[in-house]
Amino acid sequence: MKQYLRLRPFKAISFDLDDTLYHNAPHIIKAESALSLFMQEHFNVPEGWGITQWRELKSQVIAGHEELAHDTTAARYEVLRQALIQWDYTELEASQGAQQGLECFRFHRSDFKVDDSVITLLAELGNHYPLIGITNGNVDASRVGLDDVLKFVVHPGHGVKMKPYSDLFDLSCQHLEILHGDLLHIGDHPISDVLGARAAGCQSLWLNLNPNEQGQARHILPHIEIEQLQEIRKLIQ
């Protein structure tokens, strides 16, 4: 544990979810694969349509609807809908198909459980502080086993911007009825989590998952840096 700034007393702890409480990439890959198979089985996907075409369409969709850059679920739905329209499905068929595809993705995206050691750690911390989740993603916290250890989880969308914008930190402090300086945010991303928390006026603990990587970008220092999530126990010892 490295300390860069004096950690002031805090009243609550917020956690980033993806890649902080679990390794996210395998679950996204699994969900993307399941969605691709679903689309192939239920719709006439043009020959040669693959990841490049999906990425190009996503870029076009977000360029035309900037608000979707802060809502991963709505963006995925719109990409699916517009793809189906391009494939000559009707507006109704495209809307229904996009919803079905989205449900497929959402099911597989949250089809896992957070490791027991992490749940135990959160339960211990929860005996001392209220714990919440602040995520840019769309994981279903109840399905992955976080319901019993986090009071609530906030997500972007519907006009609420992603980290590092302050919206999610503002909402969290409002719900907790605390000042921003009374919230300690823990996350793995130096921009979304560290810069986002500090810019919002919160305290920051950075989970550095690549401590040996040279040239790690540090746009702003966290209060504390750790390399293993279990080091957080030192906060209550």
Brief characterization of the structure:
With 237 residues, the protein is of the alpha/beta class. It is built from seven helices and seven strands; from the N terminus they run ββαααααββαβαββ. The protein is elongated and about 60 Å long.
Number of helices: 7
| Helix and strand run | EEHHHHHEEHEHEE
Outline: elongated
| Fraction of residues in helix | 40-55%
The tally of beta strands, per DSSP, is: 7
Low-pLDDT residue spans? none
The secondary-structure class comes to: alpha/beta
Mean residue pLDDT: 93
Main beta sheet: strand number and arrangement? 7 strands, mixed
Q: In whole angstroms, how far apart are the ends?
A: 14 Å
Q: Approximately what portion of the residues adopt beta-strand conformation?
A: 5-15%
Side-by-side strand order of the widest sheet: 1-7-6-5-2-3-4
Determine Rg (CA atoms, Å): 20 Å
If you had to describe this structure to a student in words, what would you say it looks like?
The protein has a seven-stranded mixed beta sheet with strand order 1-7-6-5-2-3-4. Helix 7 (190-200) links the parallel strand 5 and strand 6 (203-207). By secondary structure, it is α/β, with parallel strands linked by helices. Helix content is 41%, strand content 11%. It has seven helices and seven strands, in the order ββαααααββαβαββ.
Kindly list the characteristics that best describe this protein.
237 residues, seven-stranded mixed beta sheet, 7 helices
